[in-house]
Design brief:
Blueprint (H helix, E strand, L loop, with lengths): L1 E8 L3 H10 L7 E7 L4 E7 L13 E2 L5 E9 L2 H10 L9 H12 L9 E9 L4 E6 L8 E5 L2 E5 L2 H4 L11 H10 L13 E2 L4 E6 L2 E7 L13 H18 L7 E4 L4 H14 L6 E5 L12 H11 L3 E5 L4 H12 L8 H13 L4 E3 L4 H5 L3 H7 L9 H12 L6 H9 L7 H7 L6 H7 L10 H8 L6 H27 L4 E3 L5 H8 L3 H4 L7 H6 L6 H4 L10 H6 L3 H7 L2 H7 L4 H12 L6 H17 L10
Parallel strand pairs: 13-14, 13-16, 14-15, 16-17
Antiparallel strand pairs: 1-3, 1-9, 2-3, 4-5, 5-6, 6-7, 7-11, 8-9, 8-10, 11-12
Helix pairs in contact: 2-3, 5-27, 6-7, 6-19, 9-27, 10-18, 15-17, 15-18, 25-26
């Protein structure tokens, strides 16, 4: 993993250096720039050495004929097979790494060659003969890529803080994007908080000529077909076979590999299979001891993580978190690059920090299992719609209004109220609302000047899907396309790379994605059991009570924090004076929201956290000439 940045246009070598320095944390092993004044081209690379640790794999890297140059962030897991094929075609190599394989693959096949890749990546390739710059992002968007196009040219980077070293980029805020951060707590690509900056969508390629985007094409699309009949045994065998292959592929490295181990099914399964390849004693694992999950209605992870570690014989490092959220929140927002209102990234951040201190540069993560095979509460809630969705709309409307009156102080009441909050809507619209933290009317009231059209990109995506896809398939498509990429992958990449650690995600290997898409709904969400077929597949590897434990997450006590530890921070960041000065939101509506939450009338903790995150982000990314941590 690395940090990449560059441009084509009226930019300077000094800017290129500043962009590279801003993301040097992503690649502490080498920093290098390629500036070609005649072509108005700049490419930079901050290297985290994982495969081929020698200087021959430093980048930006030219092919042996010096016809093309690449700056690449990621890993190509099948690079050895691809290399063999290219050698058979007469290609010569000057390194033993995967970057040169990717470069020659493009020279040989063009964009069509990307279909041969199995990996996670974002990269830029310069064609010296055609004077064209190509930038691309992996199919699932595991690796980030931001870009901006203006009258002075095209600029791109792995992180927004690097991109904004270019002071010519407008800092005008995108209110539509900000409405998404309030509604979802994250923002669907391609939007970012700034109108002038976009996120390249997963599986897409941009072609840039003379500093202008000439074309954008998509080389990968998530499966969207009807699921064929399949027996339980076949589904189990296919899933286990794909997962074993994925884990084995993603262990390729010339450095030490470790793993996250929360004690949940996903991370435990990855550790169980990885330990068989590298030896249990050679797989350092990391978990969090974080008090406070019971306040959010969640079970503690630590006892399960300990049990799995003992069962498998892997070493387990336990990180006792005594987080000072007041001090950590500004730094967290800076590292995330976006105002995501979630403290779950703290988990990955603290683990990555300790792993790096212990010399571990690669961690395996269980991210993605819920997004491909079910596991979130919304998947279970969707399965229960059959009991009431047949009701005429007036009755569904009464169900919606009645649930809104439930007290929000208890987790179970909050979940019931959320399940029926949009009961009166038609199914396509209702599917999208499972991802909402705030309804559009409340979002609009919070803005000083209401948005004329609160567009919901999730609804558009759902409506674009084939009619033969089931409601669960459509929901999982939203999970994989948006929630996984713009929420989970964004924060995992940013906080791990802040410490110079690469995180790999075997559960969303492309083979796994295709296999999961062929598994029938009833083998995914089976009654109250999410990931049911995955659980069956792992019964011979893990303890029964680990496999069938209740679903949990990073149970940080956000609601008590907002009302207690963060109370003075809330009053500072969201004071009338601060809100007026920013000019985005209505100070009266914001104050009413805070007062009602403190009085227990509503559950608005995450909305308040979102408003705080937006203000913190603006102070660091908008108010300063170039982004810097702290406020």
């Amino acid at each position: 993993m690395c940090g990449i940045a560059g441009f084509q246009g009226e930019k300077t070598e000094l800017l290129l250096s500043a962009m590279a320095q801003a993301i040097s944390h992503r690649g502490p092993d080498n920093l290098q720039c390629e500036y070609i004044a005649d072509d108005k081209l700049g490419l930079s690379h901050s290297r985290l050495s994982i495969i081929d640790l020698s200087s021959s794999s430093n980048q930006p890297l030219w092919d042996v004929k010096r016809s093309h140059c690449i700056s690449f962030n990621g890993e190509i897991y099948n690079y050895k097979d691809l290399r063999d094929g290219l050698v058979a075609k007469g290609y010569e190599f000057q390194s033993a790494g995967d970057a040169e394989v990717l470069l020659n693959l493009y020279i040989e096949y063009g964009v069509k060659g990307f279909s041969k890749l199995n990996g996670i990546y974002a990269f830029a390739i310069w064609d010296a003969s055609s004077k064209e710059l190509l930038v691309a992002r992996d199919p699932l968007g595991v690796k980030p890529l931001y870009y901006s196009e203006s009258s002075t040219g095209f600029v791109f980077s792995s992180e927004l803080k690097s991109l904004l070293q270019d002071t010519s980029i407008s800092r005008e805020l995108d209110r539509t994007a900000l409405s998404h951060y309030l509604r979802y707590l994250w923002c669907p690509a391609p939007l970012t908080p700034l109108k002038a900056v976009k996120k390249l969508e997963p599986g897409c390629v941009l072609l840039v000529k003379n500093g202008v985007i000439a074309s954008q094409t998509k080389f990968y699309q998530l499966p969207q077909s009807k699921i064929p009949p399949c027996s339980q045994q076949q589904a189990t065998d296919d899933l286990l076979s794909s997962l074993k292959s994925s884990v084995e592929r993603q262990l390729v490295a010339d450095v030490k590999v470790g793993a996250f181990l929360s004690g949940g099914l996903d991370s435990s399964a990855i550790v169980a299979l990885a330990a068989k390849h590298v030896g249990a004693e050679n797989l350092p694992c990391y978990t969090i001891d974080f008090d406070g999950g019971s306040a959010e209605g969640m079970q503690a992870d630590l006892p399960y993580a300990k049990k799995v570690a003992k069962h498998l014989g892997v070493p387990l490092e336990i990180i006792k978190v005594e987080s000072n959220i007041i001090e950590d929140l500004p730094q967290l927002i800076y590292q995330l690059d976006e105002p995501q209102a979630d403290v779950a990234p703290l988990n990955a951040w603290y683990i990555s920090r300790l792993a790096r201190e212990q010399g571990v540069k690669v961690l395996l993560s269980g991210a993605g299992g819920d997004d491909l095979l079910t596991g979130y509460r919304r998947h279970y809630a969707l399965s229960k719609e059959a009991y009431w969705q047949w009701l005429p709309k007036p009755f569904r409307f009464l169900l919606e209004k009645g649930s809104a009156m439930l007290p929000k102080s208890l987790p179970i009441m909050r979940r019931i109220a959320k399940a029926f909050e949009y009961a009166s809507l038609d199914q396509s619209d209702r599917l999208a609302t499972y991802f909402h933290w705030l309804n559009k009317d409340t979002v609009n009231r919070l803005f000083r000047e209401p948005l004329l059209d609160l567009h919901d990109p999730l609804v558009d995506h759902i409506r674009s899907l084939p009619d033969e896809m089931s409601p669960l398939q459509k929901m999982l498509s939203v999970d994989a396309k948006y929630f996984l990429t713009d929420h989970n992958f964004n924060y995992t990449d940013k906080v791990s790379m802040a410490e110079g650690v690469e995180v790999r995600v075997p559960l969303v290997d492309l083979e796994m994605v295709e296999t999961a898409a062929r598994i029938p709904d009833e083998f995914k969400q089976h009654g109250s059991h999410g990931k049911w077929i995955f659980k069956k597949a792992m019964e011979s590897y893990l303890p029964h009570d680990v496999i069938y434990r209740p679903k949990t997450g990073f149970g940080a006590p956000v609601r008590p924090w907002i009302r207690n530890e963060l109370r003075s921070t809330v009053d500072d960041l969201l004071s009338d004076q601060s809100i007026k000065a920013r000019g985005l939101f209505d100070e009266g509506q914001v104050r009413q929201l805070i007062d009602d939450d403190r009085a227990g009338k509503i559950d608005a903790a995450y909305t308040i956290l979102s408003l705080m995150s937006i203000e913190l982000w603006c102070r660091q990314f908008v108010d300063k000439p170039v982004p810097s941590p702290g406020i």
